[in-house]
Amino acid sequence: MSKKSILRAIRQNQPQGPPLPDLPSFASDAPEPLAAFQAMVAAMGGQVAHAADFPDLGALVSAYFPGETSVASTVPGFPGNIPMQDIASPAELETVGLALIPAQWGVAENGAVWVSEKDSLFRVLPFIAQHLIVVLAKDRIVSNMHEAYQRVQIDETGFGVFIAGPSKTADIEQALVIGAQGARSFTVVLE
Amino acid sequence: MKHAQKATRFIADEPRTDWHDQALWFVRQKRDLAVHSVPEWESLRELASQIKLHTLANLAEYLEAFEAKAQANGVQVHWAANAEEHNRIVYGILQNAGVRKLVKSKSILTEECGLNDFLEANGIEVTDTDLGERIIQLRDEPPSHIVLPAIHLKKEEVGELFHQKLNTEKGATDPKYLTEAARHHLRERFLQADAALTGVNFAIAETGGVVVCTNEGNADMGVHLAPLQIHCMGLEKIIPRQADLGVFTRLLARSATGQPVTMFTSHCHRPKPGGAMHIVIVDNGRSEHLGRPDFRNALKCIRCGACMNTCPIYRRSGGHSYDVAVPGPIGSILSPGIDLKKHSDLPFASTLCGSCSDVCPVKIDIHEQLYKWRQIAAGEGHLPVVKKWGMALAGQVLSSPQAYNLAGKLARRALKILPRFMLYNPLNDWGKSRELPIAPAGSFKEWYRKNKMHEPE
Ligand code: SF4
Questions:
Q1: CATH assignment of A31-80+95-190, among 3.30.300.30, 3.40.50.10420, 3.40.190.10, 3.40.630.30
Q2: Residue B357 φ/ψ region, left for φ over 0, alpha for ψ in the -120 to 50 degree band, beta for the rest
Q3: Whether B220 and A166 lie within 8 Å, measured CB to CB
Q4: What is the pLDDT of residues B52-69, one digit of tens each?
Q5: Taking the model in full, what pTM does it have?
Q6: Ligand 1 atom showing the smallest separation from residue B303 Cα
Q7: Is the ipTM of this complex over 0.95?
């Protein structure tokens, strides 16, 4: 193992440097978070749905994804139709058409939501599903990433992710295509 | 072959050069729009620079803290002094787990180390899963850009490639259709893979985890499906705290593509239930670079690619003409540190306009370093012969007023009477696509002396 020699070389060559700066949160001049968040989700290629417009989550799902027969849900009180406790390996989720997952925080400056392993049960679920719905409480929206990283504890679970929209690519002649390797659509349900 | 020669080939196709130039300029403009919507942008750049400078000054300590934390998280940490050791370590991990099929997400480091060739020679099937990376892998060529690996290709070329390799319809060029075909092809590979390997955008000393940023979600598809996950990082990827991510995630995507953030910012800290997680920390010349006072702060780089998108030389010569894993301005100040003799021409592949330094989110003085590398390249005798003689002569002439005046007179005569062959010959690159000015009747000095006398007091 080269650990020792690498660290020795680094110590020999390490320069003097400034102290670690304190980080401001730059939040004061941010616009009103809820409205900005909704606008950003749309700008990033996702959509916002309001739980209040429907009698329950089931009605919302049927309205947005009529006829969807393969629904995996980790949202408490909404079981979907794929029994999550029976899934033995993540690859079995390959057939999921729609995943519903609770999100912990939303970020107004970029429309991203924080989802951890605790929320999705399987790390791959938000990526492997053809379509993704996250359910977010309206009062859990912060203005920017500084505030988000103040709220989230990134090592609370083994995996956590900021998701800012559907999977996308522009690798062929810079043409934007939605639905590269991950979910083809992204819906944030605000409740 | 030198950059200038490769660039000559690239620009031989003029419409294509223009197209390439504009495609990158378009990305630069998107970056500008995104940046201007953040009032605290300059403060963020300064903070990012300070965090990185602080980290470089305490790098050994942060790396040790990172390792200890990662190990406590159940992650196995490896150290590689160079590319060869990195490749051996990765292969060893795969061999131990009996891996035959590996999926990879974008990693410039593994490109730098030549990992794919090494693994394939050892019987491992390697699939790059970022769409752009997959395209160039199928074409058997290196990426031409660190963020946009296939930016040099037209959709017709991708269409033909996919027709041959993925059975898409002949003549189909619609990016949506081609992306869909790749999606199906790659899903299969994800599901079959025994292991997944990614690069690392940030490694957090405080928490012992790594952050990987993608737009396609390909890193996550790979890492969360395969039982074994490996993350390879250059040792300069360390940042001290979770909170520092707030600064860097705000800068990275805006600088790279003009997005407010990448679609997926994934934080991996522990192996998945029943799985294994490895992190390989790679030196490969970085610790040595840290010892070069004029150049060490290039290690602040977060690989956003903004300096490439803005560079007038990169845009018009293409990434492949640099012949290194990291092309463009940042590559031209990193590569001479790795092999000065081989890459001595790269610091000259610049106009020194300084646009790279202006857009750099971590405030690297790129164009100043380019200038300094030029001096070192010249000092160590790595200039091409013609440039060397020319420079030596110019040095003598410019340091003596008499010689300068005489040279001016001679040049004005020469411009009138010398055959064009003197300049436009194969020895002189400068003469290519440049025309000489019409010689003025006298020097500025002569003109000034004459006209000054007629001036009313
Ligand atoms: S040198 Fe600066 S602009 Fe260039 S890739 Fe690195 S961080 Fe981006």
A1: 3.40.50.10420
A2: alpha
A3: no
A4: 999 999 999 999 999 999
A5: 0.91
A6: 5
A7: yes
